[in-house]
Request: fold
Amino acid sequence: MKTRHVELGERSYPIYIGDDLLGNADLLKPHIRGQQVMVVSNETVAPLYLEKTRYGLRDFDCASVILPDGEEYKNLDILNQIFDALLENRFNRQCTLVALGGGVVGDMTGFAAASYQRGVDFIQIPTTLLSQVDSSVGGKTGINHPLGKNMIGAFHQPRCVIADTGSLDTLDDRQLSAGIAEIIKYGLLGDAEFFDWLETNMDKLINRDNATLVYAIERSCQDKADVVAADEKESGKRALLNLGHTFGHAIEAGAGYGKWLHGEAVGTGMLMAADLSMRMGWIDKPTLHRTQDIIERAGLPIRAPSYMDFDHFMERMSVDKKVRDGKINFILLKAIGDAVVTNEFNEIHLRETIEAHRALTDT
Amino acid sequence: MKTRHVELGERSYPIYIGDDLLGNADLLKPHIRGQQVMVVSNETVAPLYLEKTRYGLRDFDCASVILPDGEEYKNLDILNQIFDALLENRFNRQCTLVALGGGVVGDMTGFAAASYQRGVDFIQIPTTLLSQVDSSVGGKTGINHPLGKNMIGAFHQPRCVIADTGSLDTLDDRQLSAGIAEIIKYGLLGDAEFFDWLETNMDKLINRDNATLVYAIERSCQDKADVVAADEKESGKRALLNLGHTFGHAIEAGAGYGKWLHGEAVGTGMLMAADLSMRMGWIDKPTLHRTQDIIERAGLPIRAPSYMDFDHFMERMSVDKKVRDGKINFILLKAIGDAVVTNEFNEIHLRETIEAHRALTDT
Reply:
């Protein structure tokens, strides 16, 4: 087992990475203050891992709530099911919530924990690659609104993160690729050496070699933890973690939540960000090709839906959280491993980028 | 105009108290960072004060949303109307929300501000006495759940509080008394000198003498600000502000939200807390009588609904936020001006207290 740390003063916490960690009472116990524990999971993950997780919590008063599975359920109504369960079970302020599932479960459980009685503890047990390398770390929690993704939420740090690589065995290939998108992101935005490593090891990663997976998760978590420690509330550097997300969120919303996986949209979004960077003369063609090559090798899509034209993207991007004083902010590349936040783009370049990445037909 | 301060490091903020402050652009401007301002009000307050408030915001891009009036609307559905308005108007992270109304509007607006895009600025313009002396100060925000009051929320401090005593002219007597309940609370829990002052000045207060009102608001805000500065997230001393609230919340919920005003329930709740303190031998009969006398002179009820027996109270109080490790916490009195948090009560004394304060018949 590997351990990494997110350094945030008295809110610091460990990330445990390794095989067969689920249900390990010794890992969980030191991070639970009270007696009441509510495990929040979904219909897909609960049959696989709920029993094992509850075994690890056998010394506590444990209850659970099972949500429907999918990004389309990441809303206020389903969030309320968690509050219902907490109140029906008379959970108090000393309780702990445990998120057992992917990013949707983690984000909703985290926001429920941030809001229940104005804030209780929670633990992240991410069971998808994407949530292990991204959403479980850093304390961003929230839900979607019909008019925008993650528009309602809170910064609320977990007490610990337990990334059990064993839970990836049950992940389908599409979900695995979606997770790799966020791994590539860390290389692209600030860790050129890791990007090189990914070029060498992408085949092993796609084939789920365990040591390769553990290293990729560990390094991604460390890269993210360093950014979060430097800028918890996203007043500066943390915005770089949104590389690919301005385009990506527009694609997710434009396609209808649940059609595209978040990581898939981020994959295409990163390529579009690289393409826009090239059109602006910030990176050269070979750099764009390296970016496209690794995204394709990860099994990720490289084109947005055919009906998503310039206006469609603008409509979606103008409600993005990264909009500031009416200007859309993009995270663009100066080089592999060197991303910057900017609103200094040329509309013609943006139009060309969007046109270049519209699918010719939709499958 | 008087100014008081809540000292919370970089989140410190002023409370302005005086007549005709609404619509004062010079007061508002320094506390608004971006260009977009959303005024949240309700159907009762908006016709009276919205236009004037918007006049004070004439240099900003200002929109407004009007909620239905009443504690029964302090829920997730109505909260969502604020998010709808923010997103329909494409409000960004630099926006400011302005709460124009009583405690319900303030609590909901504050929680919307805490959650919108994971946190934006807000300003409190409380228009009821109760919200001027209590809920607008200190950063507690939230909504109710069918199973408990203020069960979902956040700590989120406003950028400033503007308490315009002119807005109290339109307040009915019942609302005025409800506000005085919270004023009495500050005297009872930690400011014996203020309690004495209230005994002397209650008639002037009830008759809305302006200088008396301003002083009572100012002193209440200072007492509250001191407690909040010492313990923002209620890990200790701040719990004292819940004097009367364990019984009070049970009465509000038991009667059905909206039937009793919050301050009315707190009035009866404080008397019950004093009664329980006396039965435990902590205060003497004359002290209980002084407490009952001031509550009655403020025009507040002294009995809970007739159908609220011991079991009914226990059912409600066991989901209270003040429950810890299964034990109900009460704020009880050692003397006037000296309250303590305790779970060391005798069930027989509690039964007696509840029986002694059940109305014989309900009106």
